[in-house]
Amino acid sequence: MHAIPVKRTIAVSSGKGGVGKTLTSVHLAAAAARRGDRTLIIDGDLGLANVDVLLGVKAEHSIFDVITGSLRIEDVLIKGPMGITVMPAGSGIAALQNLDADLRDRLVSGIRSVASRFDTVIIDTGAGISETVLQLNRLARINLVVTTPEPHAVTDAYALIKVLSECEDIPTIAVAVNQARSDEEGRRVFERLAEVAARFVTARLVFAGTIPVDPAVQRSVMARRAVQENSNFSIAGQAWTQCFHRLANLADDWRQESVRMVNEFALAEGTQS
User: Fold this and answer.
1) For residues 53, 7, 145 and 66, what is the CA-based torsion angle, rounded to 10 degrees?
2) Number of domains forming the structure of the chain
3) Residue 1 within any structural domain of the chain
4) pLDDT tier for residue 5 given thresholds of 50, 70 and 90
5) Where are the beta strands (DSSP E) in the chain?
6) Is the residue at 2 inside a domain?
7) Which among 40, 4, 18, 24 has a CA at the least distance from the CA of 244?
8) Is the per-residue pLDDT at 270 higher than 60?
9) HSE on the CB side for 102, CA within 13 Å?
10) Which structural domain, as residue segments, surrounds residue 34?
């Protein structure tokens, strides 16, 4: 499967729930919108969706309506804060948790049909290592795994990294450490993951950043205003913004490397002929 033809397509995943994966997704989308990008956030946490809740928007329709064929994907898109476009998923719909291959292909086809209209696409996947999570990750140019410093979260993050690395089209995986007490703690978590991964994982791991514990985040979530124009003024908000810029730079590097490989291939072909 080929990635979506949008340079900044970021899939955000986690080994387990409760580590701040969706909060990370919406703040990355906010950082993109804040710099003027046409931004789409896709709620790929099928059946347990909450992107719309965090953004304080009401979703009358969802990806479920697209998969079942009752609506076109354009019909379910809604506008969120800061001009962010949201593709909501259904919550509490058991059928979305176990999509067969045909329904997953229909979902991917729908995403591809609208993604090219945007400068940045954020895909908030479900937690764990289901086939749907892997397929959504393979649509992205950049794959971000979110964890916290807790040992069980790190263990599950490594399991996800190992599975993602087995996909030939995922050569690099970024890691963000959320709810850390300091940047040093976040870096230690990443270094521990990278040390193990260097022995058993083929993908390259890069550090996307530490997001510190910040009481302002919980207050904004309770108010259903996780993202707003000034959300980058909080300590955690600034960290998420920095994380987005690191990922955007990684996407630029990925693009430059792809162009270099294409040029080298063309040159080799020309020499042989």
Assistant:
1) 40
2) 1
3) no
4) confident
5) 8-14, 39-44, 78-79, 85-87, 120-127, 142-147, 172-180, 204-212
6) no
7) 24
8) no
9) 2
10) 8-272
